Amino acid sequence: MVIIKTTEEIEIIRECGRRLATVLHKVKEKVTAGISTKELDLYAEKLIRDMGDTPAFLNYRPEGANKPFPSSLCVSVNDEVVHGIPRKNRILKEGDIVSIDLGVKHKGLFTDMAMTVPVGKVNPIDLKLMQITEQALQVGIDSAVAGNTVGDIGYAIESFIKSNKSQKYGIVEVLSGHGVGHEIHEDPYIPNFGKPGTGAKLKAGMIIALEPMLNLGTKHVTIDDDGYTIRTADGKRSAHFEHTILITEGEPEILTKV
Ligand code: MG
């Protein structure tokens, strides 16, 4: 069931998004050669708890998972697409690309945000991958207006990516954007591909997280034995950008911003 948020809920979620964006940008500053992915996780958790809030992913158990997620921050390096588990012995090095994905619960309500960050100087092909993914997110946001459908968002994202002729990218299909607010994942689910005019209709007051995931190689992914880490099947690199947004009658409002 698609949930329309009340004015009071929107106010809380807006504050939640501002707090999340503040934390994630601080974590981004720490993404440097020599730091472990676990240090990034503990830093994110501390910042969230210092504000009196709760990390949304810590101990979250997605449908079908046989154990809860063990960390506050997902840290996915290079060929890891999403849901990478932070580790003390996973040390970042120059040239890596690192996706950091975080959810915050503030006064009982949730927001979700992600970005891919370069470690020092990275390969121009990787830089372009990150830029196209971030632009694809913006194209998706621009199409997310009341009266349009979930399929219109997917179509906009997919068309934008396919219009880039200099490099063919794999759009991850098994994971998608989603409603967010009362839970970290709610209806509707919003694939990063689609047909115009299909799927749930967008209405003012809906809050959704859009999150294109792009691979340098094919769309195919595998899951590690840890039950969480999703990585590209061909070992090529991947990028991920995500915002939580509010649907309005006019331009959508990005809630996960400082
Ligand atoms: Mg998400």
Report on the structure:
- This protein is an alpha+beta fold and 258 residues long.
- The chain has one domain: Creatinase/methionine aminopeptidase superfamily (Creatine Amidinohydrolase, Alpha-Beta Complex).
- It is built from 4 helices and 15 strands.
- The strands form 4 sheets. Strands 8-7-9-14-15 form a 5-stranded antiparallel beta sheet.
- Strand 4 and strand 5 form a beta hairpin.
- Helix 1 packs antiparallel against helix 2 and helix 3 runs antiparallel to helix 4.
- The longest helix has 24 residues.
- It is globular and about 45 Å long.
- The two termini are 30 Å apart.
- The mean pLDDT is 97.
- It binds magnesium ion (MG).
- The site of magnesium ion has 5 residues, from loops.
Outline the secondary-structure elements.
Elements: H1 7-30, H2 37-50, E1 54-55, E2 73-77, E3 80-82, E4 97-106, E5 109-118, H3 124-142, H4 150-162, E6 170-171, E7 177-179, E8 186-190, E9 207-210, E10 213-215, E11 221-223, E12 230-232, E13 238-240, E14 243-246, E15 253-254
Helix pairs in contact: 1-2, 3-4
The structure holds magnesium ion.
